[in-house]
Amino acid sequence: MFDIDITTLVIAGLFTAAFIAPLYWNYRKMSQKEKKAEQLIQSLKASKGLFLSEKDYWNNQYFIGIDPVKKVLVYSENIHIHEPMIVDLNQMKGIKMEEKSHEFNKRKIVDELTLMVHPLQKAPIPLEFYDADKFSSLDAEPVLIKKWESLIRPLLKKIPEKELSA
């Protein structure tokens, strides 16, 4: 039948382990980051008495969640570094999606996706969803930003769209 050379078997095993080890290490690292972010969000929810009915975590750093009953939005550009920002939607008059892009070889390249939340009396609050300087390609951010715009818009005070541009 087959004569299996022990040396060949050991070398194949070592190459297999060398190939799998970095993948496993990366998986564990990302899993620990996600657990840490979830613990941070849980402690924030408990301390502020929030119930985040909808939340998203993407690109291993961004976080957004909403409590529609209290009309509170929780957002962090990098949950592992920055304390999440709490936005009282009762004090906001509008929301608008902004996209910065450029053209290259007749193709549109998206540089930034930002959700601008407009307070009643202050400058708009930018909620970054994508920045080409930080990430090499778009994934699901365009769908995600539209989802959040549609979730937040009904909770805001009714102000005509033309007043948001002013």
Task: Offer a concise description of the structure.
Helices cover 36% and strands 32% of the residues. It is elongated, with a radius of gyration of 22 Å.
Describe the model.
By secondary structure, the chain is of the alpha+beta class. It has a four-stranded antiparallel beta sheet, with no helix packed on it. A three-stranded antiparallel beta sheet has the order 5-6-7, with helices on one face. The protein has helices at 6-48, 141-152, 161-165, and strands spanning 54-58, 62-67, 72-76, 85-88, 92-104, 107-119, 125-131. The model has no long low-confidence stretch (mean pLDDT 86). The protein has one domain. The chain is elongated and about 80 Å long.
Q: Helix fraction?
A: 25-40%
Distance between the termini: 82 Å
Q: What topology, given as strand order, has the largest sheet? A: 1-2-3-4
- Total helical segments: 3
Helix-strand category:
alpha+beta
Radius of gyration: 22 Å
Oligomer status: single chain
Q: What is the number of independent domains?
A: 1
Mean pLDDT: 86
Shape: elongated
Low-confidence segments: none
Task: Output the helix-strand order.
Answer: HEEEEEEEHH
Percent strand equals 25-35%
